[in-house]
Amino acid sequence: MRFCAASDQALLVYVGEEVGLPAHQRVLKLLRSLQAKPPAWLRNLQPAYCSLLVTFDPCLVDHSAVQATVHDSERRTDTGRSIKPKTVEIPVCYGDEFGPDLEIVASAHRLSRTEVIQLHCSQTYHSYFLGFAPGFAYLGDVPPEIDTPRLEVPRKVVPAGSVAIAGRQTAVYPFSMPGGWRLLGRTPLALFRSDRKPMQLVSIGDYARFRPISRDEFLKWESR
Amino acid sequence: MTSLVVETPGLLTTVQDLGRIGFGPAGVSPSGAADPIALRLGNLLLGNPPDAAALEMTLLGGAFFFPDGGAIAVTGADFAPTASGRPIEMWTSHTIAPGTTLKFASTRNYARCYLAVAGGIRVPLFLGSASTHLVSGLGGFEGRALRKGDILQIGEAQKKISERRLSQVALYSLKPRKKLRATDGPQTDKFPEDVKLSFFRTVFRVSEESNRLGIRLEGAHLLASVAVEMITEGVTWGAVQITPSGQPIILGVEQQTTGGYPKIANVIGADLHRLGQLRPRDEFRFERIPLAVARSLWIEQERLLNNPSQLFVV
Q1: CB within 8 Å of B279: residues ≥ 6 apart
Q2: Do A145 and A208 share a structural domain?
Q3: Cβ separation B22–A150 shorter than 8 A
Q4: Greatest CA separation for chain B
Q5: Which residue of B has its CA nearest to A23?
Q6: Do the chains contact at B27 and A59, CB–CB below 8 Å?
Q7: What is the rounded distance in angstroms from the CA atom of residue B116 to the CA atom of residue B56?
Q8: Contact between chains at A153 and B245 (C-beta distance less than 8 A)
Q9: pTM summary value
Q10: Does B238 lie at the interface with A, CB-CB under 8 angstroms?
Q11: pLDDT on residue B222
Q12: CATH assignment at residue A14
């Protein structure tokens, strides 16, 4: 484990240096363990690929005290209730105005548009964590054949439901918002709804698959 | 229950409190008032709980009609507030008569002005908070900025509101500064020494494209050539990210919860409220301070905020 102060009231706990399931399992275990017995000073927990950001009340503790508690939690075996992961299928209308970067991704890898879609739909993705925005699940791993870096200059507005890739990650934008990922298509599903339980469609530790749908199917779905 | 009516909304007016804490695992950031200290003081002046909901106005204020009157306090930036045409003092509690219209103009100094009402603004809570999260359209009044004609409910006020004002000591110690103090960020060590030096020397200018999510800075694109590889991780309010084009972005109160850009610095907790008061075209520098100093500045500030005898004069 490696620790680093993120701010005067937050500590970053790194449990690995490489994106993958081993680091994810350690993040998940640490998250569940701290959630099962939250200390009084704990303000927020933000899991990511290889790290957990622990935000605390600096009037009650300092970084070294938080570090000690995190160490203890990691050693604890009673990590609270186990949560069963689910698999979510996400229908996607690929290309054209829904996926303005599909063509660029295809030509960058000398693939056809269809091949890019097939590759994107070929995996059962793991939900590493939710971050960036409410309900935004970081899914991996995207096949290396379509690994594409994010945009140099992020778009000011990415429409809600946009299905995108960046490196070996893929995700769906839950809301219309700025973003730097490459847009391949769009889903009619709502990724986050405050009147649903849980509010997010995909939680940390869940699985997700993408399935291509036609423009007609997309429109039909949306009008429901 | 009493209410207020939005006659004109101003540029961007939202319902805010001190945010929703602890929903990181669902990707939900705390949000809340961009200048939480102004909001807290507005509430304390009125005998409200410090985290009661109030209105946050941005650069240009609105006009609000109080059919039943009430008690109010105006804090934060000076938007030249008037009550039925007469100027009213800021940082002071006022009782207003039924039929009063509170009117705000454009800012005379900073970015955000707060209108607190005795009893607080009542809206349905989302994850325990009244804060408007603009990006997701959740919380606040219908998840959006206020519009002309909106009617907002006001909660039950404390029995008696005695007039009190903020002390000069408190006003002075909380006012915006020319320098934002910052501690090292998680990737500070990965930036070359000369880049760090010039980062702390540069006078940055706040870009027009700044909002509650983040403050984009203009200045020397000194970091364009530096490629710092990192894995996406949790980010904090006040984190200073450097984009691949070399532009610094300070994460705001309605921040994304994770990010993949390296962070060269982090604005200290005790200066976060000042971030919320930066206007487009404002200029400032960062001042690098040690973590332990940042923590004691926060503790000192909290001590002041929790000490009514130092905060207020009656």
Answers
A1: B59, B107, B110, B111, B206
A2: yes
A3: no
A4: 62
A5: B231
A6: no
A7: 9
A8: yes
A9: 0.92
A10: yes
A11: 62
A12: 3.30.1360.40
* Cβ separation A48–B234 shorter than 8 A: yes
Per-residue pLDDT band for B166 (boundaries 50, 70, 90) equals: very high
**How many Cα neighbours within 13 Å face the side chain of A131?**
26
Between chains, do A8 and B266 touch, taking CB under 8 Å as contact? yes
Shortest CA gap B6–chain A (Å): 26
| Interface A-B: count of C-beta contacts within 8 A | 154
- Beta strands (DSSP E) in B212-262 are 214-218, 233-234, 239-242, 248-251, 258-259
Question: What residues of A are in contact with residue B27 (Cβ under 8 Å)?
Answer: 130-137, 192, 200
B27 in the Ramachandran plot: left (φ > 0), alpha (ψ -120 to 50) or beta? left
Give exposure, A5-16, as e/b (b: 16+ Cβ within 10 Å): bbbbbbbbbbbb
Domain B179-305 is classified in which CATH homologous superfamily? Cyclophilin-like (2.40.100.10)
**What interface predicted TM-score (ipTM) does this complex get?**
0.95
Phi, psi of A209 (to 5 degrees): -130, 150
Which residue in A5, A53, A198 is closest to B234 by CB distance? A53
Contact B266, B248 (CB under 8 A): no
Residue A81 lies in a domain: no
pLDDT at A79: 57
